[in-house]
Design brief:
30% helix, binds 2-acetamido-2-deoxy-beta-D-glucopyranose, alpha+beta, 12 strands, Immunoglobulin-like, four-stranded antiparallel beta sheet, eight-stranded antiparallel beta sheet, rod-shaped
Length: 215
């Protein structure tokens, strides 16, 4: 930097014919100008270094921080619901499941096709298919899937639990799923991430309203 500074500040010809009676004054002014110029350079370089450091920190702490996207089922209302008798408890229902993939990364999350399993008492009662797609950076991908659930395959011990639940006017389901994909930041930094869904879905059989609580 000092070298460059000197190179720039050596116009010997132009200085040559000014050195007459006011030589000493000129020298002082020159020194002052040189000093100012050096100061400007120093400040400029320090500012540049600080800018670089801040940029690098921002990049490492914010942009390059890969986070697993959130995979969940939102609240919804059941469209059709049929429940059995007290003697033989059962359910049949259909609804549009609002599946949400929230990507907080600074790059898109491309994921493979997957399924969301709906279970009652640990037994699968239905499924939703998630087609392969992507969630854009800093956004929530919304997928509305038609789902039909049936208690037909429940073993008798779980069916008796269902009877108890139905008497209190609720059905508690679980939705679980796994989304495997890749996040790409700045078009080149890639990282594989897996999003887990584990939601507890409580259906009010009287109002058909559904509350979904996800981990
Ligand atoms: C879901 O079901 C509705 C009718 O209930 C239908 O209009 C719609 O096209 C279906 N959506 C999908 C994705 O199958
Ligand atoms: C969902 O069920 C399918 C089988 O129907 C199974 O292969 C898959 O692993 C299950 N997914 C989860 C997250 O439990
Ligand atoms: C899902 O959450 C329930 C509690 O709500 C927990 O008992 C279960 O272990 C969780 N399953 C997974 C696969 O994380």
């Amino acid at each position: 930097m000092a070298e460059k500074n000197q190179n720039q500040y050596h116009p010997p010809e132009s200085n040559g014919y000014q050195r007459d009676d006011q030589e000493s004054l000129h020298t002082v002014e020159d020194e002052e100008a040189k000093r100012k110029k050096r100061m400007k350079w120093t400040i400029g370089i320090i500012a540049f270094i600080i800018f670089q450091v801040v940029q690098a920190l921002f990049f490492i702490l914010v942009i390059m921080k890969f986070k697993s996207p959130k995979f969940r089922v939102g609240d919804f209302a059941v469209q059709t619901l049929t429940i059995g008798t007290q003697a033989s408890p059962s359910f049949e229902m259909s609804f549009v499941a609002p599946i949400r993939i929230k990507n907080t990364n600074w790059g898109p999350f491309k994921y493979d096709a997957s399924t969301v399993n709906f279970t009652y008492g640990g037994v699968q009662v239905g499924q939703a298919i998630i087609p392969k797609s992507k969630a854009n950076f800093k956004s929530t991908k919304k997928i509305d899937v038609n789902v039909t659930l049936s208690s037909d395959n429940l073993p008798s011990n779980i069916n008796s639990n269902l009877g108890t639940e139905l008497r209190s006017g609720i059905i508690t389901l679980t939705s679980q799923g796994e989304l495997k994909g890749k996040i790409t930041v700045m078009f080149m930094f890639k990282k594989k991430k897996t999003s887990q869904m584990n939601c507890t879905i409580v259906i009010n059989t009287a109002t058909k309203a559904v509350q979904s609580l996800c981990k």
